[in-house]
């Protein structure tokens, strides 16, 4: 295993379809062993980026490297790829299909069979193994596909929207497997438009909006840096007149709690001291971490709003 | 290599297991046997219903002869006395005691016209048999009255063209004749097999490619296999299915021929010669040549069909796009039918050299000995070159096509695909 060098490297990659630019000037480096999230709304260029990594599309500009070289056939075989458009041989039996995919990825027939059976059991599909794929529900088909992605024990997993279409229970199962594979030293890149999922799983995230990279950072680092200095407070009984305090620039009611936005120079501890000093009974005091969604919106704007034509001139 | 083998196996196993394959493989021979059986059965059944017949002879000379002839044809005949009461017989028919009766009168002897009186018209088998029996007896009777009756009788038998091969003794001539018949049978059967294989299994290759493209499975497969490997595996797999089908059919024929036919033929003593049919089975050379033509023809067309499948988005599009290929297969088949019917024109041999026509047109010519050996060799070389070229072009179209989800390419775009792939 060459887990030393960069696993995926994109530099200045650009892809256009006719007049539409799908990916523009895109840089990305994925170090071995990370769980990397490629985030962005639908149509932002995630799938195109992934397809270029897999050599399915050729970039119009820039360079794509997989395991330190061109994404050729030998290097691609070290990747487990789950495409967004999930193709299956509908008329094949589940187990036969998995064995076939194992085989074309260089796993011996017998070994592919044992592994497939193990995975089917793990994902609760054992009793379906001799059913035709078309008899399975979409969610089950997706699990079968996931198995075919990991059957050859690849070093790098590239999963395009792996969780979409799964019910919460199966999402959890899949998340668990992703974390497990990561613990076994695999590098994992997945794309999603579900920020919560990314927040739970990723070590690093890359935000894409409208064909361009907006952010690319360690998730914890990003959150620390993006911390807005907001706190949530909740009181038993009467609340103090927080809005009048000099350190608070803005107050927002959020259910029972109040979200306070602090002025730049004010530290949260000062507010806490003030609350305690005034003798109000505090039930909760919490530093608000920015949600990934907020960070995204802060940097890229709400995609829907952003794309809407400007109607009110003069506001800014 | 191992991976190509996996593709071949998948393609083969998945197809052979389908109901369509089993039905078409078993259905074809069963259908043919069934049709023959039903036709024969119905005819026999309708004729067996009532075989008793009353014969009224008013001519006074034909009665006994016709009775014997009809009895030989399997009827139970009761020859009525000359002055029988026909009203009485009619009544029996109406009462359904008698199905029908035959009346021979004076015009029967001169014009072979006779009456069949019944409630229902006679079935086709019955009217054939009866008419033949009556006419034969009359002709026989009249010829017997003539001085040179025997000679006229031979004329009626149609004469004969006796081929006398120059420069061959009798034994050699017989061999040559057997060879000619063998060539004819092999040529017709071989041409038909090639036609079916190229048309049916070429189209299956197209379908298989299209299915993978439409379902997007191909994106997964192609991340582990090179496009040409997938295409080759597919073509070989589908071809193997076709060969299996033909092999089963041939085995059926051989089984029938080996077990059932000789006893059948032996029973029908008229066809003693046919009992030696085994001498007409093709030799290893003709079979080998068939394999060569099959491999070249099938690869040529199925690679192009695969390219068409890769170009299109759905079956409707593919249906239109494959039309030129279908025509390229059907035209030589039509020309070959003309040849079998005896319209042998020398320039056709040159048409058979056209690589896209060669499998269907050159193979029968080769086994029937209609073309010199160099022409057969030339057509094989030409076909091999064409296969090579077609595979190259098709491989490139395939490579781009299977991953493209856009419109069907225009001819110009297609050229670009081929250049840039």
Chain oligomer state: heterodimer
The ordered string of helix (H) and strand (E) elements of chain B is HHEHEHEHEHHHHHHHHHHHHH
Number of helices of chain B: 18
From the alpha carbons, calculate the radius of gyration of chain A and give it in angstroms.
24 Å
Please, how many domains of chain A? Answer: 2
Query: Count of DSSP helices of chain A?
Result: 11
CATH C-level label of the largest domain in chain A: Alpha Beta
Break the fold down into its secondary structure elements and pairings.
The complex is a heterodimer of chains A (316) and B (421).
Chain A: E1 8-17, E2 20-30, E3 35-39, H1 46-53, E4 61-66, H2 73-76, E5 79-82, H3 94-104, H4 109-122, H5 138-150, E6 156-160, H6 168-183, E7 187-192, H7 195-201, E8 204-209, E9 212-218, H8 219-226, E10 230-235, E11 248-254, E12 257-262, H9 268-277, E13 282-287, H10 292-300, H11 303-307
Parallel strand pairs in A: 3-7, 3-8, 5-6, 6-7
Antiparallel strand pairs in A: 1-2, 1-4, 8-9, 10-12, 10-13, 11-12
Chain B: H1 2-16, H2 19-48, E1 52-57, H3 63-72, E2 76-80, H4 86-94, E3 100-104, H5 106-111, E4 115-118, H6 124-145, H7 149-156, H8 170-215, H9 217-222, H10 227-267, H11 272-275, H12 284-311, H13 315-321, H14 323-340, H15 346-351, H16 358-368, H17 373-401, H18 411-420
Parallel strand pairs in B: 1-2, 1-3
Antiparallel strand pairs in B: 3-4
Helix pairs in contact in B: 1-10, 2-10, 3-6, 6-7, 8-10, 8-12, 8-14, 8-16, 10-12, 12-16, 12-17, 14-16, 16-17, 17-18
């Amino acid at each position: 295993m060459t887990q030393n060098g960069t696993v995926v490297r994109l530099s200045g990659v650009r892809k256009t379809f006719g007049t539409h630019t799908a990916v523009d000037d895109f840089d990305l480096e994925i170090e071995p062993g990370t769980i990397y999230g490629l985030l962005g709304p639908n149509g932002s260029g995630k799938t195109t980026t992934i397809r270029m990594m897999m050599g399915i599309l050729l970039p119009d500009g820039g360079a794509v490297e997989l395991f330190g070289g061109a994404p050729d056939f030998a290097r691609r075989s070290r990747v487990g790829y789950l495409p967004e458009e999930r193709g299956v041989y509908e008329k094949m039996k589940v187990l036969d299909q998995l064995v076939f995919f194992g085989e074309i990825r260089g796993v011996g027939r017998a070994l592919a069979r044992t592994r497939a059976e193990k995975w089917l059991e793990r994902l609760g599909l054992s009793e379906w193994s001799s059913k035709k794929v078309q008899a399975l529900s979409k969610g089950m088909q997706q699990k079968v596909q996931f198995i075919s992605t990991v059957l050859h024990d690849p070093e790098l997993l590239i999963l395009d929207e792996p969780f979409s279409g799964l019910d919460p229970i199966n999402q959890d199962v899949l998340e668990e497997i992703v974390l497990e594979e990561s613990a076994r030293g695999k590098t994992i890149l997945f794309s999603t438009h579900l920020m919560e999922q990314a927040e739970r799983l990723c070590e690093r995230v890359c935000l894409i909006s409208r064909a361009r990279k907006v952010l690319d950072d360690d998730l914890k680092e990003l959150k620390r840096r993006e911390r807005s200095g907001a706190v949530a407070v909740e009181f038993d009984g009467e609340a103090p007149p927080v809005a009048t305090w000099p350190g608070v620039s803005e107050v927002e009611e959020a259910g029972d709690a109040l979200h306070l936005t602090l002025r730049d120079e004010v530290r949260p501890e000062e507010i806490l001291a003030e609350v305690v000093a005034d003798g109000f009974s505090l039930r909760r005091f919490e530093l608000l971490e920015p949600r990934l969604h907020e960070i995204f919106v802060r940097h890229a704007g709400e995609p829907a709003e952003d794309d809407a034509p400007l109607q009110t001139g003069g506001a800014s | 290599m191992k991976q190509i083998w996996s593709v071949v196996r998948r393609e083969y196993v998945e197809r052979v297991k389908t109901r369509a394959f089993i039905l078409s493989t078993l259905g074809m021979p069963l259908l043919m046997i069934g049709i023959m059986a039903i036709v024969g059965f119905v005819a026999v059944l309708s004729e067996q219903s009532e075989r008793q017949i009353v014969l009224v002879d008013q001519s006074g000379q034909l009665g006994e002869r016709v009775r014997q002839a009809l009895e030989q044809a399997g009827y139970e005949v009761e020859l009525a006395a000359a002055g029988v009461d026909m009203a009485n017989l009619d009544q029996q028919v109406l009462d359904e005691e008698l199905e029908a009766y035959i009346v021979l009168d004076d015009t029967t002897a001169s014009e072979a016209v006779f009456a069949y009186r019944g409630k229902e018209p006679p079935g086709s088998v019955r009217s054939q048999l009866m008419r033949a029996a009556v006419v034969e007896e009359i002709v026989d009777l009249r010829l017997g009255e003539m001085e040179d009756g025997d000679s006229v009788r031979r004329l009626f038998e149609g004469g004969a063209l006796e081929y006398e091969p120059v420069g061959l003794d009798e034994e050699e001539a017989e061999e040559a004749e057997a060879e000619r018949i063998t060539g004819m049978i092999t040529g017709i059967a071989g041409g038909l097999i090639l036609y079916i294989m190229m048309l049916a299994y070429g189209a299956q290759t197209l379908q298989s490619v299209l299915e993978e493209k439409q379902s997007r499975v191909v994106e997964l497969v192609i991340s582990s296999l090179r496009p040409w490997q997938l295409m080759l595996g597919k073509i070989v797999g589908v071809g193997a299915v076709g060969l299996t089908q033909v092999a089963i059919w041939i085995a059926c024929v051989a089984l029938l021929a080996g077990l059932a036919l000789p006893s059948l033929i032996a029973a029908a003593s008229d066809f003693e010669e046919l009992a030696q049919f085994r001498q007409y089975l093709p030799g290893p050379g003709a079979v080998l040549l068939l394999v060569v033509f099959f491999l070249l023809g099938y690869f040529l067309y199925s690679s192009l069909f695969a390219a068409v499948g890769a170009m299109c988005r759905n079956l409707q599009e593919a249906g239109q796009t494959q039309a030129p290929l279908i025509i390229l297969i059907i035209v030589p088949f039509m020309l070959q039918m003309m040849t079998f019917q005896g319209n042998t024109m020398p320039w056709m041999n040159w048409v058979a050299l056209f690589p896209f026509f060669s499998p269907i047109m050159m193979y029968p010519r080769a086994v029937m000995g209609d073309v010199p050996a160099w022409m057969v060799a030339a057509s094989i070389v030409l076909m091999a070159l064409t296969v090579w070229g077609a595979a190259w072009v098709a491989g490139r179209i395939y490579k781009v096509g299977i991953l493209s989800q856009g419109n069907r390419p225009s001819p110009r775009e297609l050229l670009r695909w081929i250049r840039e792939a």
